Amino acid sequence: QVQLVESGGGLVQAGGSLRLSCAASGRTFSNYVMAWFRQAPGKEREFGAAINWSGGGTSYADSVKGRFTISRDNAKKTVYLQMNSLLPEDTAVYYCAARTYYSATQAALYPYWGQGTQVTVSS
Q1: Beta bridge partners of 94
Q2: How far is residue 61's CA from residue 29's CA, in Å, rounded to a whole number?
Q3: 110 vs 6, 38, 75, 106, CA distance in Å?
Q4: 96 partner at 20 to 30 Å CA-CA among 3, 104, 108, 123?
Q5: How many CB atoms lie within 10 A of CB 14?
C-alpha cells in the first residue's frame, strides 16, 4: 500500500507554469505505476499522464501532450507533473494516483489516491 499527498497547486495566468509534486509513503513506491488525473467541477475525472515504475515509459492525454511532463524520483518517493503553457481549460483539482503492474487511463483502475490540489488558470 502507498499513501499519496499532492502539493504545488495554485493560481496562475494563462501561459504560465506550475510544478505539482506527489509525495508517497510506503515501501512499494518504486514498484507502482504513477499517474496524474484531474477533475473540473461537474465533470468526470480524466486521465492526464502516467509513468511506469522505472521512469522509462510515459503516456499523456491528448489534451496535455506537449505541455505537461510527468517524472518520478524513486529515491525521494516523489512523482512530479511539470505543467507549462497552461490554459484556462486546465483548471481542475489534480490528483496523484498509483496502481501496480500496468499503466491505465481509467480512474477506476487506480486504487490509491491523494487528496488533490487545486490548479486555477486565469485568462
Answers
A1: 38, 117
A2: 23
A3: 16, 13, 22, 7
A4: 123
A5: 13
Q: What is the bridge-based pairing of β-strands 46-51 and 58-60?
A: antiparallel
Residues 44-49: contacts with CB within 8 Å, 24+ apart?
45/95, 45/107, 46/107, 47/105, 47/106, 47/107, 48/81, 48/94, 49/81
Nearest 5 degrees, angle CA 82-CA 87-CA 88? 125
Q: What are residue 46's DSSP bridge partners? A: 38
> How far is it, in rounded angstroms, from Cα 84 to Cα 98?
23
Cα separation, 74 vs 90, in Å, equals 27
Place of cell 504560465: 16
Per-residue pLDDT of the chain (123 residues; tens, 9 = 90+): 789 999 999 999 999 999 999 999 986 677 889 999 999 999 999 999 999 977 779 999 999 999 999 999 988 999 999 999 999 999 999 999 999 888 899 999 999 999 999 999 999
